[in-house]
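Aim 2 progress update. The chain analyzed this quarter is reproduced below.
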Amino acid sequence: MKDIFLVVLVVILIWTLWFFGGKPSPDGTKRLSFFGTDISSPSIGATSSPSLFKDEVQVSNTQSARESDINREHLGITASYSNSGPVSLTGWKLKNKEGRMVQIGKAAKLPYSGRANTEESFFLAPGETAVVATGRSPIGVSFKINSCSGYLGQFQVFTPPMPASCPSNIDDARASHRGLEEQCLAYIAGLPSCSIYTGAIPADLSSVCANYIRDNINYNSCADLHRNDQDFYKTEWRVFLGENTSLWNDAGDFIRLYDASGNLVDSQSY
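Predicted structure tokens:
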């Protein structure tokens, strides 16, 4: 009976030392020295198996994780150009040095403004990058950058900013609406790119012209017109974790990326 009591006492002592003395190490374990011997025990997100995606996907742009504003805090996840095919990031996890872990969700490859967008698992093709922001999406979903995405930055703030290059207003007008008069086309040619026109339509322009400007120079119309273009989609996704508080420490952090099976893919510190 006394022997059993001693065994239980030793077990409690070891657990207490581990719980209060263990420190997370970069490999995802807690280590402590007990009678001169290192004892390792897995912490949250630890893995004993290498990921199948090791060296195929890397954490990048870690300096942007230093941003103190949650709406600007972000980092990159990049797929190697040498990969044999696309890699799904949905269900993967990011973990900071404090042990906080956040899962990467789904995305709407082609979002529309003012509509309900269906989100699905998304994939990084070889050479593509996901800009992973800690905060919430200004348009409500994660998405892939396309040639019309510049419109999305007119009324919402993105970090990094949306690209300011969109298909030509005048080229679209000539291609999609043959009934516009030359005076109208000349006016459209002077309108800024990637911008919904919010000013007054000159009185000397026809109602057909005015209606075209109001109804067609916007993100949704641009996406409908160009979605089948060969170069419509770009090589960057915008992914939002939807967190309410900062994930990465401004002074420095240890970033770990785990695949959907819980295996460590990459780790970076800053």
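Residues 17-48 have pLDDT under 50 and may be disordered. The helical segments are 2-21, 169-176, 182-189, 207-216, 219-226. These observations will guide the mutagenesis experiments scheduled for the next reporting period.
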